[in-house]
């Protein structure tokens, strides 16, 4: 008796594949009929959005370059004593420029006011920059330091100490300037024991400008600090293995 072939008939297999392909093609046509227009609109919108993003980036770079050139030209005019020509550009950037340029322009306005002898205007600008939380911390810190220096003689010493507390930490970029003002304010309050360590720390900080370190050394010695204490600590000796 003949043994039946265990493999499916080749013709049946081809027929099944043909039916399967036809079913899939029908599904695809049905899907395209139902969603093709929506899909096409989606693709177009995606391409338009991508083109808009690329244009926005390119325009942003172009505007930043133009803003930088305008600000640099204004600074050059200020240095050349042509403040009148620079003032409109700086004023526009101070009002409408990107945050970084807006802060820089305001600080330049304050510097121009100081050069013109208008301390009140400069102080008002510094206070505005220091209080503007939309600006980066370095700009606000610089404005705080400059405002404090400008009104140092009229501020209560306790206010100076409290305002500058965040800066009177070794390693802070403004430690030297803030530490000196805070130390003098502590002296006005009669806190010699708090002022002396600040002056010593300033002297030992090699990142502080030499002129400021020299003043701090004189103040520290005037408070009875041993000059030897102002020297940087010697490096620890390294033992030699036996």
Helix content: over 70%
β-sheet strand percentage: under 5%
The low-confidence runs, each spanning 5 or more residues with pLDDT under 50, are 237-242
Radius of gyration: 36 Å
How many distinct beta strands? Answer: 0
**Sequence of secondary-structure elements:** HHHHHHHHH
Quaternary state of this entry equals single chain
Shape: elongated
Instruction: Tell me the distance between the termini.
Output: 98 Å
Mean pLDDT: 80
Total helices: the number is 9
Q: SS-based structural class? A: mainly alpha
Q: Report the major sheet.
A: none
Short description:
73% of the residues lie in helices and 0% in strands. It is mostly helical. Helix 8 runs antiparallel to helix 9 (210-222).
Written description of the protein model:
The protein has nine helices and no strands. The chain is elongated, with a radius of gyration of 36 Å. Helix content is 73%, strand content 0%. Among the domains are: 65-150; 153-231. It is mainly alpha-helical and 242 residues long. It has helices spanning 10-79, 83-96, 99-115, 119-131, 137-150, 157-164, 175-188, 192-204, 210-222.
List the SSEs and their pairings.
Elements (H helix, E strand, L loop, with lengths): L9 H70 L3 H14 L2 H17 L3 H13 L5 H14 L6 H8 L10 H14 L3 H13 L5 H13 L20
Task: Give the tags.
242 residues, mainly alpha, 9 helices, disordered C terminus
């Amino acid at each position: 008796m003949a043994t039946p072939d265990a493999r499916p008939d080749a013709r049946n297999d081809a027929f099944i594949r043909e039916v399967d392909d036809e079913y899939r093609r029908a599904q695809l046509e049905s899907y395209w009929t139902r969603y093709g227009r929506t899909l096409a609109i989606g693709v177009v919108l995606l391409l338009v959005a991508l083109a808009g993003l690329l244009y926005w980036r390119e325009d942003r770079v172009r505007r930043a370059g133009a803003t930088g050139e305008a600000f640099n030209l204004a600074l050059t005019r200020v240095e050349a004593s042509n403040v009148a020509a620079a003032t409109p550009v700086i004023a526009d950037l101070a009002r409408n420029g990107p945050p970084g340029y807006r802060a820089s322009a305001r600080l330049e306005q304050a510097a121009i006011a100081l050069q013109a002898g208008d301390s009140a205007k400069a102080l008002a600008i510094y206070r505005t920059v220091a209080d503007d939380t939309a600006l980066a911390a370095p700009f606000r810190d610089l404005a705080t330091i400059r405002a404090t220096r400008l009104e140092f003689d009229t501020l209560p010493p306790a206010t100076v100490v409290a305002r500058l507390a965040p800066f009177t930490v070794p390693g802070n970029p403004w430690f030297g300037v803030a530490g000196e003002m805070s130390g003098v304010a502590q002296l006005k309050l009669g806190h010699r024991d708090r002022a002396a360590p600040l002056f010593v720390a300033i002297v030992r900080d090699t990142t502080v400008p030499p002129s400021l370190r020299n003043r701090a050394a004189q103040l520290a010695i005037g408070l009875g600090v041993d000059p030897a204490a102002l020297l940087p600590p010697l490096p620890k000796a390294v033992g030699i293995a036996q």
